Amino acid sequence: MDSEGRCALCRSGLRGFDAAYCFGAYEGVLRDLIHLFKYAGVKTLARPLGDLLSAALPRGERFDAIAAVPMHWMRRWRRGYNQSELLAADLSRRCGIPVTACLVRGRVTAAQAGLSNTRRRRNVAGAFRVPPRRAGSVAGKRILLIDDVMTTGSTASACAQALKRAGAERVALLTAARVDRRSSILRPAEYSTMGGSG
Questions:
Q1: Is 106 a member of any domain?
Q2: If you write DSSP's letter for every residue of 59-77 in order, what string do you get?
Q3: In the predicted model, is pLDDT for residue 158 greater than 60?
Q4: What is the rounded CA–CA span in Å between residue 47 and residue 50?
Q5: For residue range 106-118, what is the model confidence (pLDDT) as tens digits?
Q6: In terms of residue numbers, what domain contains 116?
Q7: Does some domain include residue 198?
């Protein structure tokens, strides 16, 4: 990423991750599938959504480990699973990159839906960390961060910053969908959409 791209990321509050990739827009059938997967307990959708993640991952990229965006333990207990962990596990089986449970969410945050961009960033600021005992799985590594949907990038940015503080060399985000094109922030080479309605 060039300096112009980095400046655009900084102005938008999207500091931390070096690249972002997704399969398609968060609408129509893709949105319905993600809702069923995330809120209706249809965990078997991890496989078809994993197909989409795999299709969106650039073949030229190389990663040392996969990390899922974590949920706070209380929210995970209520839902029964973390959808990002299921996607990360599926992608790991496909591409042979190990999953590292390096990130923890240290506090409960308000739901991001309905918050402004500024409030989203404040909501997740400092919410994620890499415990010292797990720093070895991050230091000097190229990390692929997995989530189901990217809206403003605030959550991914907070996770990436925590990974970088722990010594990660590079952090790229991969999601099944994104809410908007973000064309004013990331040029296509930096935020790629593969397949879907693009």
A1: yes
A2: TT---SEEEEPP--HHHHH
A3: yes
A4: 5
A5: 655 545 445 455 5
A6: 3-193
A7: no
Mode of pairing for the β-strands spanning 104-105 and 128-129: antiparallel
Domain assignment present for 29? yes
| Residue located via tokens 């991952």 | 57
CATH number at residue 135: 3.40.50
Which spans in 102-143 are helix H?
117-124
Q: Is residue 169 part of a domain?
A: yes
Check if the beta carbon of residue 64 is closer than 8 Å to that of residue 97. Answer: yes
Q: What is the pLDDT of residues 119-135, one digit of tens each?
A: 555 555 557 888 999 99
Domains held by the chain: number: 1
Q: Are 93 and 59 in contact (CB under 8 A)?
A: no
| In 16-63, beta strands by DSSP E | 19-25
For residue 118, give both structure tokens.
């500024």
Q: Rounded to two decimals, what is the model's pTM?
A: 0.78
